[in-house]
Amino acid sequence: MKPLLNKTTKPFIIYVLIILVISIPLYYFVVDAIWKHELDEHNKIVAEKTSSQINSLKLSDEKLNETIKLWNDVQPTTNIRNLDKNDHFKDSIFIVEKPHDFLDFNDIDRFRCLSKIIYLNKKPYRFNIETNIEESQETIFFISATTVILFILIVGGLLFLNRRLSKSVWKPFRETLDQLKTFSLNNQTKIEFPQTDVTEFDELNQSLSKLIEHNVSVYKTQKEFTENASHELQTPLAILKNKLDILLQNEDLTEKQYHIAEEMNRALSRSSRINKNLLLLAKIENNQFDNSKIHLDELLNQSMEILQEHFDQKNISVHSEISSDIKVNGNIGLTEVLINNLILNAIRHTPINGSISIKLNNSVFEVSNSGTEKLNSDLLFKRFSRFSKDNNGSGLGLAIVKEICKSQNWTIDYRFENHNHIFSVKL
């Protein structure tokens, strides 16, 4: 998971980097074009100024030739010469690369050249001038270096400003988040969201306040329903069961009547169990249980002692590997229900003379029993899903186990290995 600030900053940095990389050749071509234009204009001005100044001297042809020779000697970057026979009287601009004529080292430089026709004493001459252009490698280097420095300054400034601004801009959001983390439906503490002048955060706080108020109201209603149902439904069911027990003890019942009453008693007992389990599921889903530190190994040993009679009835051999001093965070009542449901489920679906294995350590609680084929994992933990013809159960045992694990931040997993059904609770 990445902070929102990183998600927004990274695309911006990539975008800036792409623009700056593209700008390097763009800067070079623009600067090079401007520089060449300025050099061409400079060379043209020098040619026109030279022609104007020499003509202003009003020299004779002999003196003009001497002046041209002297000019060519003292101006290494310009040259005035007579026209060739095949000269087309056209001006030209070009670039040459060569060493400087008057420097000792032989490094190659670029020169922007102008070859232009000028008139001296009304006679045409070919005027050549060359001006040194900056090195392209140097231009690219300095432009690239400048771009890199600008990129570092932009990115560094952006990260610095984002961190400074995020502390103030996102402060109301973080305070709201901290309030939500501490909120619990069990405590129903009222949340006072901080005041903010940001429209989006203000709308978020208002929406959260309405949502929490609605959830608290629904939670109270569901809690009242489960409490009322627990009392109102269990009482008549208990009365009916008691009356049926009395009826079954009546010696005047015929055999047919006795079987009917017995079937009614079994159905009523199952209805009572289903009612209790549904109420338990509702309480778990409404977070009506508090967690604390419990000794899981002691709780497991107690349950196995209580259920020993069920093992003996089907002559089931039990193999246990229970580590000592296993402490977990959970609700002791719910954890006892989870242990009993998994073990009773294994007993119910293990054939006579079968075997059950129980394992407990710091990371997992595991119950396995012998079987013939793998069960459907998609339906295994759904309510009222059945995988055998046994109707004694309520069809809610594994669904309750799933909800208990969810409420205590555990995970339940099923697998089929070596003809054994294995239920693993990762603690």
From TrEMBL:
Coiled-coil intervals, chain numbering: none
Name the EC number(s): 2.7.13.3
Q: Spell out the Pfam families in the cross-references.
A: HATPase_c, HisKA
State a GO cellular component annotated for this protein: plasma membrane
- Entries under InterPro entries matching the protein: BphY/WalK/GraS-like (IPR050351), HATPase_C_sf (IPR036890), HATPase_dom (IPR003594), His_kinase_dom (IPR005467), HisK_dim/P_dom (IPR003661), HisK_dim/P_sf (IPR036097)
**Keyword Transmembrane belongs to the record:** yes
Q: Which residues form the Histidine kinase domain?
A: 228-427
Which residue windows are transmembrane per the record?
12-30, 140-161
- Domain of life (superkingdom): Bacteria
A molecular function annotated in GO for this UniProt entry is: phosphorelay sensor kinase activity
* Gene Ontology BP annotations: cellular response to phosphate starvation
Q: Which CDD domains does the UniProt record give?
A: HATPase, HisKA
The answer, when asked if Kinase is one of the entry's keywords, is: yes
Keywords, in A-Z order: Kinase, Membrane, Phosphoprotein, Transferase, Transmembrane, Transmembrane helix, Two-component regulatory system
- Reactions that this protein is recorded to catalyse: ATP + protein L-histidine = ADP + protein N-phospho-L-histidine
Matching PANTHER family? PHOSPHATE REGULON SENSOR PROTEIN PHOR
From the Swiss-Prot or TrEMBL record, give the protein name: histidine kinase
